[in-house]
Design goal:
6-stranded mixed β-sheet, Nuclear Transport Factor 2, Chain: A, globular, 40% strand, alpha+beta, 207 residues
């Protein structure tokens, strides 16, 4: 088996482990998918891998329910650097105006990875949010959203953001979507990463 295929298999395993270990609460294992300078960009928090893990732990203790499901995978490798894209859904359950709902958001994980000391690790995870929806758990229940609040958030994750803002998270309002300047900038940054250049994203630097 050639090295390129071995690297692709290792990267896919890392991406799968991220979702399985995070959603299961296996925090020590989850930490191993990140490099020490790893950063996570989510709608509800942006920061280091350790900060992300700690906030997830706190959310678990408060009963926050966020799960992930993965689909197709694409990988570009240039030497010891890689960019992967993985189709995914984010599913969050919580109360909106007293009604228990599920929000499902469809998108992609866009990941910057590097092999250091023969180990692939995640440097940056930036989700791309493509579309979402909100449904009451009880099919007979109705929930009325504030259209002005909903309109504050990008269309790709406006229902997810609405729910997260209801449970107290400060939601970032300029995350990349399917189209637009934000996602085009992300693609350009990914190209720079693969070209071996130093990159900056959301105030953080690598390379």
């Amino acid at each position: 088996m050639d090295q390129a295929l071995l690297d692709k298999l290792a990267l896919r395993e890392l991406i799968d482990n991220w979702a399985i270990w995070r959603d299961a609460g296996f925090w020590e294992k989850f930490r191993t998918v990140w490099h020490d300078d790893g950063r996570m960009m989510a709608t509800w928090t942006q920061g280091t891998a350790d900060e992300f893990i700690e906030m997830n732990k706190q959310g678990w203790e408060r009963g926050v329910s966020i799960l992930h499901f993965l689909g197709g995978f694409n990988c570009d490798i240039a030497g010891n650097r890689a960019v992967t894209q993985t189709k995914m859904t984010i599913s969050q359950r919580g109360e909106v105006h007293g009604v228990l709902v599920d929000v499902v958001c469809t998108g992609r994980f866009y990941d910057f990875l590097e092999k250091r000391n023969d180990r692939w690790g995640m440097c940056l995870r930036q989700p791309i949010y493509e579309k979402d929806r909100l449904d009451p758990i009880d099919p007979n229940a109705k929930v009325t959203l504030d259209s002005n609040v909903l309109a504050e958030f990008p269309v790709g994750y406006q229902h997810l953001a609405y729910l997260q803002s209801q449970v107290g998270y400060p939601v970032k309002k300029d995350m990349p979507g399917l189209k637009g300047a934000e996602v085009e900038t992300l693609y350009a940054t990914g190209a720079d990463w693969l070209a071996g250049k130093r990159i900056a994203w959301a105030g953080f630097n690598w390379g």
